[in-house]
Amino acid sequence: MPEVASRNHLDMLAPVVDEALETAGIGFGDLTGIAVTNGPGLIGALLVGLSAAKAYAYALGIPLVTVNHLEGHLHSIFIEGQKNSALPLESSLPLLTCLVSGGHTNLYLLRGLPPRMLMPQRLSQSRDDAAGEAFDKCAKLLGLPYPGGVHLDRLARGGNPAAFKFPRPLPGKNLEFSFSGLKTAVLTELKNAGFVPHIWGEPDFSKLPQGALLADYCASIQEAIVQTLAKKIRLAIEQTGAKSLAVVGGVSANSRLRALLAEKVRVPMLFPAPPYCTDNAAMIGACGLFAFERGEALESEALLRAGAFSS
Question: Could you tell me if residue 85 is inside a domain?
Answer without folding.
Answer: no
